[in-house]
Design goal:
Length: 279
């Protein structure tokens, strides 16, 4: 996620990309760096707080942070404390906060649940089980699927797609706090037209297509994302199939952070995380 906007920043003089798609807070970082331009698209019917008031970035799909556990993870982890078990030493990995969007979400969610110092204390304890840094969340799914890892983080869209399309044998879960309550963080794939694109009209047409009713319906039924168009999302909200986003998230509280606020403190939070975990 961070690599996407950094690559755009590095190569902005040659205009290598027409459309940037990444997760927050990295899309906000790209906008702040002047790497995006206004799309001019009508965002009516998209009530997401991730829509930029200036029109430089728009969510194209919603998802949420999750964790995955392979068949050999016994007993099945249920709580955050379960992830500290000694039998998971060297068999657990999560993508790196500050580099991967899903990994950054792990840090933010724990801050929300435990407070900033509580999150650092927890992650310092978890470090004894953690295999090590990973800039990519997607690679962890393969490792859990082949048994190299027992537990890793993921996101709902990516994990359900792996189960349905690739036959992945892991389970998706949302770690609970001590009172049994499960909370996760809402994430979005967010897109913006690059400031130096050589094909601005085509980029805007592609973004408009991704936001169309047809594409948003296909997103839900074929790609396991959560539509950003309110009308389409509402049609799926009562789905109880556990292999759909709505069904999987039943009973889970969805937290939506202020991503601009997150960006303000991100560098300090990542530095504190690195110090706490000895990275």
């Amino acid at each position: 996620s961070r690599a996407a906007w950094q690559r755009l920043d590095t190569d902005k003089s040659v205009g290598p990309a027409d459309l940037l798609v990444t997760l927050p807070p990295f899309i906000q970082k790209a906008a702040k760096a002047g790497l995006l331009q206004e799309s001019g698209l009508d965002t009516a019917g998209i009530s997401s707080p991730v829509v930029d008031p200036g029109g430089t970035y728009i969510p194209i799909a919603h998802t949420a942070l999750c964790f995955i556990a392979g068949p050999a993870a016994q007993p099945r982890p249920v709580t955050w404390n379960d992830l500290l078990r000694s039998d998971l030493k060297g068999r657990l990995q999560y993508s790196t906060p500050g580099e991967a969007g899903d990994g950054t979400a792990v840090l933010l969610l724990l801050q929300h649940l435990m407070g900033k110092q509580g999150a650092l204390d927890y992650l310092a304890r978890l470090q004894s089980n953690n295999v090590g840094p990973s800039p990519s969340t997607g690679t962890l799914q393969t490792k859990v699927g082949n048994g190299e890892l027992l537990v890793a983080n993921g996101d709902v869209q990516m994990s359900l797609a792996a189960i349905k399309n690739d036959g992945a044998k892991f389970d998706v879960f949302f770690p609970a706090m001590g009172d049994g309550g499960r909370t996760t963080i809402s994430l979005s794939y967010v897109a913006g037209v690059t400031a130096n694109t050589q094909h601005p009209d085509e980029a805007k047409k592609l973004l408009a297509f991704l936001l169309s009713d047809g594409a948003q319906t296909a997103l839900a039924t074929q790609a396991f994302g959560i539509p950003v168009r309110d009308s389409i999302a509402a049609q799926l909200a009562d789905d109880t199939d556990p292999l759909t986003p709505a069904g999987l998230l039943k009973g889970v509280k969805l937290w939506r952070p202020d991503w601009n606020g997150v960006l303000t403190h991100l560098e300090d939070d990542v530095a504190a995380y690195q110090k706490a975990t000895g990275r």
